[in-house]
């Protein structure tokens, strides 16, 4: 009963129904506000449920019986929103440079004299290979960390609610350099609101500048100096994506930060927002650790924060690898992102 009252604070009676028939705009606006608040509460409950599941998973790690690998060999099929045929594109702006194996001049001369076709010489794989299926060792994208991390930025083909991250890597024993596997991975997301929402922007009205007319026009124009404006200059937060207002909820930034605080109670806000590299429009919704020693080389992780509100979707993501298993560079075989539109 308490859960019902929390999620459905309005119990409509016959009088309310008759009022709706009267098409009272105030009631419709109130109903719309209540629906928006219900979306936030459902998203909050989903986030809390994910935290409980994560805690339960930590307790279950003491189970001496390992997870059956067959579960991962026959996974439940879900839509991969990082698939290139689904419209996903690599954004080079926030993507780290590719690690290239440069061919030295003597070797290049030998290949030219031997008339070895360039197609035979394997070129470094581009970042898009981290979004594509792989078959052999080396079918991956490698990059040397800069500033202690490696980044892969992707523009999604569809606006989604992000829920799960899948990390694929070659098994430990099949690679000569298994230490290049990613270890700690952060997922940063950019959110968007429906197009009909408007941003909070303080508009400045220019002062009128009357001029002289008639006979006095020959002496030139005279202008009136405007009084110093008392209008508040909008902050970069308000003019950015975070400044969008959602009816009955408030700003996009406030909503997301409320959910992030619940998902990350032991971390400062600077750990999941206002990133110095990505800027104010990105929020960290996931932080996972890939285990290269696991018998299963394909591992699925539930995201820490799932923002499931009807008017909000993710349109761009950035994967940031902050550590690997000991190599000087990091290689990514494939990332997958599950969720719903």
Automatic annotation (TrEMBL):
Highest taxon of the source? Eukaryota
| Cellular compartments annotated | Membrane
Domain SUN: where? 87-341
One of the record's GO molecular function terms: protein-membrane adaptor activity
Q: Which UniProt keywords apply?
A: Membrane, Transmembrane, Transmembrane helix
Q: Does the keyword Transmembrane apply?
A: yes
Kindly list the GO CC terms recorded for this protein: meiotic nuclear membrane microtubule tethering complex
Transmembrane among keywords? yes
Which InterPro entries does this UniProt record tie to the protein? SUN1-5, SUN_dom
Q: What is this protein called?
A: SUN domain-containing protein
The root-end lineage is: Eukaryota, Fungi, Dikarya, Ascomycota, Pezizomycotina
